[in-house]
Every structure is written in structure tokens, then in C-alpha cells.
Amino acid sequence: MGEKSKYYYLKPKSDKHRIAFHEPSSGTTTSRNVAAVSLLTTNHPTSIVDMNFESSQASASLSGMGILRAVLILILAAILYIGGLFIYGGANNLRGQITDLSLRGMDKLAAAAVALTEQDMLAAQGDFLAAENLFATAQKEVLSLGQTNLYLSGLAADRSQIVAGQQLIDSGINLAQAGQIMLDATQPIFQYLNGTSVSTLAVDDFTIQMVTLLQASSADFDRALAKIDRAHTLLVNVNPTIVGTAYASALNEAQTKTARLQELVSILGTLAKELPDALGFKNPRHYLILNQNNNELRATGGFLGSFVWMEIYQGKIQDIKVDITQRVDGQLGHAGDAIMPAPLRAVTTQFGTRDSNWYLDFPTSAQSFQKLYEQGGGGTADGIIAINPTIIEDILKVFGPIYIASKDLEITADNFVETTQQQVELIDNQQENPKEVLTELAPILMERLMSANQGQLQQTYTALLDRIASKDVLLYFNNLRLQQVAHQLNAAGTVAVDGVGDFLSVVQSNLGGTKSSQHLIQDIEHVANINIAGEITDELALTYTHTGTSEFPDGTNKNYLRIYVPLGSQLGDYTGQDYGTTAETFDESGKTVFAFWVTTEPGATSRLTLRYTLPTDVTDDHLYQLYLQKQAGANNTRLSSVVHLSPALQFADGSKHKLLFDDKFIQDANFGVEYIGIN
Description:
Elements: H1 30-33, H2 64-82, H3 95-117, H4 121-143, H5 147-153, H6 161-193, H7 206-236, H8 240-243, H9 245-278, E1 285-293, E2 303-313, E3 316-324, H10 325-330, H11 362-375, E4 383-387, H12 389-399, E5 402-404, E6 409-411, H13 416-427, H14 436-450, H15 454-469, E7 473-477, H16 480-488, E8 502-510, E9 520-530, E10 536-546, E11 557-566, E12 570-575, E13 584-588, E14 591-600, E15 605-613, E16 623-628, E17 637-645, E18 649-650, E19 657-664, E20 669-674, E21 676-677
Parallel strand pairs: 1-4, 8-16, 9-17
Antiparallel strand pairs: 1-2, 2-3, 4-7, 5-6, 8-11, 9-10, 10-15, 11-14, 12-15, 13-14, 16-20, 17-19, 18-21
């Protein structure tokens, strides 16, 4: 047999080619407002991090090559400790040689990073191999000292610098090897995407080809993950007291980054194993796509007026049906009344599928829809996907306008929302199926997606990742492993797990029957006040400015607001709610919720203010943590957050207050800031 040719492909470098991964971050304000604020890692993944492990407002490319660039940053950090740090005493004669080898290994890793950015996969492969060899040589030089001599000199003790150095070098070797494995694993995938491989499959067999390639790479993903696990274990076992205070934070950062890398490669491995079954390669699979209109905001995105039932078998759509919640709810009678949330009783006598996305926690809302759908005669889905109109606009941008002959309508990315909304609410509102225009549009969109070329699929994929980042797409799967992936990608729409810090999520529900949310601007002002005892009292001001009109489908915005805060928080003074109403307090999804009715007329402004005390104090390390969770579909929001300290406290720079965030709120954010007492 002849020698096989190898082809490498990396998607062009672009800010748009990114993917959402769960990582607490400051969202879009890192460079602008939080220079003195440290981003924290928690058990709940939240925001966006690209594969260079840098904060980003966009999503990052799910390119296996991007993983390797993340490895480089970790290695560069590790080398900081190695150079001249751990060799002393009897090992001094080898200091220069080992340091030189380590630094040369660092240079090769840096060269690999450059090669990756220039899409030169062959050069990157060579640089990774050279880096591994240099680290391995450094390791041999350390071992040449001899274990007996090391123990006699005390250098091999658990707290010795030479042991820490060995662990760091070993971690570098494992990560360099993982990089090479990932290059080999992803090479066929990128080769196929670039069109450099020869395939007997047609373009419309894209899904089959990708699943086949992922399955073939599954074992390599497992091998790479084992190497990364080993590197992470080595870094975690490095004694922080040995590396010294100058390197302790860098060591912690390296440990954090390998943990993120573990998660990322684990995601790829899970997808390689689970996608075949999810795409019906074993048995037919069924999915529900919920069309949410965020011009009429609800907790998980918007009013749920229609949905798509889809059957997938062998990676292809076998059946697709578009239906309206109004028809399903007509089959329910009063089956759901017993579980209808109380606020909905102000606008309806029946709890149906149209209101099932009432709960901020998307898995709860998805399960609510599934239960009501089954009661209305529907089937059981393997997964539920909620989308807002923005993703349809993105698809139309890729594939161009669609002409609906029966309505004499040309639907484009620019007029989609306005045209379909007018058709449904004003023109076809008396028909049996007022959403007929959507019923006709959906199959055409799906047909174009299924017959798309590779360039169109890549554009659609990128747009989808951007929408996942902004929560315009939410995913729920019965398959627990896929559901975990959705959670890791910040696409599950779960409520963040409560920790020791502060938490805030403001959720709007437009219950006035209008599409006024598109013209309602929300301004959130959050202030955390910390006293000498570490007690936290938060002040919150919510301002709503209605820029719309009284002309239907716009109109008065009747907003039921829910403010999610740490469980056990106590509500104090509040003002600005609708006349004759009072605050409601209850617990939901592990949070305490303060709820208010706030109505805003077109051209007017409403302002709600409240004060509440958190149930726990700041921890002994004087670290204030804040988690901000964005409502899906609420894309007209600006948020500011400030920490104020009592006179006996101050931040490191001597100030009494710190601005954490002040920008458009487009994705979850997580902050931490330390303060000190004044003697």
C-alpha cells in the first residue's frame, strides 16, 4: 500500500468562529470595567470562553485545533515556574542545562501556537513533537541526579522544589502529547470540511460523514483526555508553598485551565459517542422545536405560539410537522389548571402549552411542555429545543429570502419578525390556523438546511453558536450525557447553583397580550453594600422605558417581574410597583424570588426600587462574589453593578467602591473582588 497523504485544515481566524462554553466570566466588559476584578471559577458554568481561555463576547470555534492553542497558554504558564525555580543545592550544576531545555521547549510550543494561527498544521505537529522531546530530555536530566542522592539531600521530599519541578515538567510532556493526539484526531474532520478528502457520500450525506468521522476519533479523544487528566493531577499535586507566593496565583491559573481543557475534550468525546444515537442511527429519534417570540417575553425567551415535531432516522429528517399551541391546548380542557402558576390566572383560565415556559429553569419548562403536550394527544420527544426569532433571521441571511406563494409574501432576514407578526396578528387572526405562514415557512427552511453546501452549513453553525451564547437557543435532552454537554456549553438554561456569593437574575413576563417587549428598554442598577462585619445589603433599581406605540400588536406592557436572589434573602423597602399591588416572596429553583407587577404605557417610564439583605456574610477571605444570570430573549437590557464598602474597609487601590459591570447585558457574568480592612 502506498503512503497515505495527510491534509490539515483550520477554519479561518475570525471573531465569529467561536463557541459557547461554560466558564464564569465578565461577559463583554472585561477590558472596559474590571481591570481590578478577578474572574472566578465556580461549579456552574456560565459565560463564554474561547479556546485560548480568554474572555469573549462572541462564541469560539469548536475546532479541535483551538484546543491546542489553549494547551500552549497553560504550558507557557507552567514554564514560568520551571525556569530557575526548583533546582538548588546539590542540583545547581544542572540548573542552566535543564532551564535551557525547558525554555527551548517553551519556544517550540510558542512556535506551534503561531503555526496554528497561520493554519499550518504540519508545522504545528512538528513543533509539538519537538516540545515533547525537549521536555523529555529535561526530565531525564533531573532523573540523572539519582533518586538515592536526591533523598539523601532532602531534594526528593514531598515539599522539595525539585519534586515540584518534576511534576511541572511531566505535566508539560502530557499536554504536548495530548496536543499531538488531538491534531491526529481532528485531522480527518477538517480534511473533510476543507474538501481535501475524497468521499463517496453526497453533499446531503454530510451528517452521516461527520458522525462517522467523530466515531473514528472517539478513541483518540479518550487518549487525549487521559493525558490531560494526568497533567491536571500533576499540577494539582504541586505544593503551592514550594513555588512561593510569586507563582502561587499562576499555579492556580494553570490548574484551572487544565480543568477547563478536561471539560472541553470530554465534550468532544461525549459527542463522538452519543451523536449517532441522538441522530437516529440506532432507532428513530423525535425532537420538539419550540418557537418563542421574545417580542412578548416569557421566562425562557418568549411567548410560545407554535412548534415543530421532527423525526430523525439515520441522520436525516424523515418527518416534520408544524403545529400551534392553540390547537393542542384546545384538547386539554382544564387538565392543567391544578398546576397553573398563580400570576397566569390574571390573564387566562387554562394552563396550556402556550404558557408552559413559565419557569426560568429551562429543563423545568421543557418538562412542563412535554407533559401538557402528551395530555393534549402528542408524543414523547427525545429532546426539546427552544428558539427565538433571531436564529431564523440568521438562517435567512445565509440562505436568502423565501417566497410564500399562498400569502404573496417574500420573507427576508430584515422583515421576518415584522411580516410574520403582522400576518398572524392582523391578517390571518380569524383563520383556524392564524400561524399558517409559519407552517408553510418551516418545511422550506428545513429543506434548504438539509440541501445546504458546506459553506452554508458552516455559516449556519457559526450563527447557531452565537445564539447559544446569547441564550436565543436552549437545549434539553432525555439523554443525560447529552444534557450534561448542553449544560457545559451553557445551552441548558439551568439556574446557576447557589454558592457562597451574591446572585441576581431579573425575569420579565409580558402578560398584557401585546408584542411590546421589543420596544421596552430595561436598565438594571445593582449596588452591593458591605459593612465591617461582612454583611451584604443589595440595592436594586429597575427602569423600564417604553419606546413603542399604542398601535397593535404593540401597546401597554404589563410586566410580571421576578427577581431571583440568593436563597434566604430578606426583602426590605421597595417602591414603584403597580398601584394596589404588593411584592410576592417565594422560593424557586434554589433561589428566593421577589415578584412585582410593573405596567408601562407607550412613551412612558416605570422605575422599581428595592432593598434586600443576603442570608450569608462575605467569607473570611474578604472575597465578594457576584453571579449575574441573563434572561433568555431579553436583549434590550443594560446593567451596571457596583460594590460599596463601609468606611472601615477598602480595596487594594484604596478606593471604597468598585464598578464590576456597566454595559449591555448579553450573557451570564461572574465576578469576584477582594477587599481589606483598615487598621
